[in-house]
Design brief:
This protein starts with a helix and ends in a 14-residue tail after the last helix. By secondary structure, it is an all-alpha fold. It is built from ten helices and no strands. 33% of the residues are buried.
């Protein structure tokens, strides 16, 4: 829920953006950004994205993360769309992995898997690694086995695998069938 000032501020940012007045939108945002909630931040992210300023979207999203403001659906869509439309491949991977990590830390392993399945990009080991950590945390041995296999396929050809070592540390004691060590 936003306060009256936060709602007015978000609305002003959106209005200026629709009038193609990016400077006024950013000035409004910048003057009160310490008082804004994620809705206003999302409005500014969307404004930068719609005007083709992918670099500013990424910078602002990183600021959101640094300030420990919980991103919402719109912030993720904006940053991923900006990465897509501006060719920021490496940053896009990072944010996809962040989303998987966010879902995984909340114990939403099915949702994380669905998110991965819907990704329009070729996945790297960071995305699978984020899911693997969540599987381990929530003791989901069936899913962790599938994830580890995918991770092995991706990293087995690398000279110095990044996450393969982590996947190899999952042990399967024969007596319990549980893949997690205590």
């Amino acid at each position: 829920m936003c306060t009256q000032n936060q709602c007015v501020g978000s609305s002003l940012i959106t209005m200026y953006a629709k009038c193609d007045s990016l400077e006024d939108a950013y000035r409004t945002f910048n003057e009160a950004k310490d008082q804004f909630n994620v809705v206003a931040w999302a409005s500014m992210l969307t404004t930068f994205k719609q005007h083709g300023h992918g670099d500013k979207v990424i910078k602002l999203f990183d600021e959101i993360v640094d300030l420990e403001i919980d991103p919402n659906y719109i912030t993720f869509v904006s940053v991923l769309s900006a990465c897509n439309h501006n060719g920021f491949i490496n940053q896009g991977f990072r944010y996809y992995a962040c989303m998987v990590d966010l879902l995984g830390r909340a114990g939403l392993l099915d949702e994380a898997t669905q998110f991965i399945d819907a990704m329009p990009i070729q996945l790297d080991s960071f995305v699978w690694g984020a899911l693997l950590v969540a599987c381990r945390k929530f003791r989901n041995s069936e899913l962790s086995s599938k994830v580890a296999q995918k991770l092995f396929r991706i990293e087995s050809h690398m000279k110095q695998p990044r996450l393969l070592t982590q996947a190899q540390n999952i042990q399967y004691p024969p007596s319990t069938g549980d893949c997690f060590t205590t």
